[in-house]
């Protein structure tokens, strides 16, 4: 029987978590840049929200989308054996 110290995460799960985290980080960086430079009035609009709910929802939804898209692209690229 394996003990918790002997258990390791399967390679494909680590692969998926890694690429999802990269997508989430990319989304956060993109949103922070858009807020900082006030792209299309985004920073001004979020500044008026006192509860912080709009900022949370914006970051959550964008991170979820970018994370899933990045993971999907990485998984679809697993089967390609073509040499460029």
Write structural notes for this entry:
The chain has 84 residues and is mostly helical. It is built from 3 helices and no strands. The protein has helices spanning 11-36, 42-48, 53-76. It is elongated.
Annotate the secondary structure layout:
Elements: H1 11-36, H2 42-48, H3 53-76
Helix pairs in contact: 1-3
Please give the count of helices: 3
The counted number of beta strands is 0
Would you list the SSEs in sequence order as H and E? HHH
Q: What kind of sheet is the major sheet?
A: none
Radius of gyration equals 18 Å
Distance between the termini: 45 Å
Class by SSE composition: mainly alpha
Shape: elongated
The overall average pLDDT, rounded, is: 91
């Amino acid at each position: 029987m394996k003990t918790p110290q002997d258990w390791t995460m399967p390679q494909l799960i680590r692969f998926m978590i890694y690429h999802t985290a990269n997508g989430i980080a990319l989304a956060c960086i993109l949103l922070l840049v858009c807020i900082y430079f006030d792209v299309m009035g985004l920073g001004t609009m979020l500044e008026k929200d006192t509860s912080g709910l709009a900022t949370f929802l914006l970051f959550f939804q964008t991170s979820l989308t970018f994370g899933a898209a990045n993971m999907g692209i990485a998984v679809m690229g697993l089967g390609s054996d073509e040499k460029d």
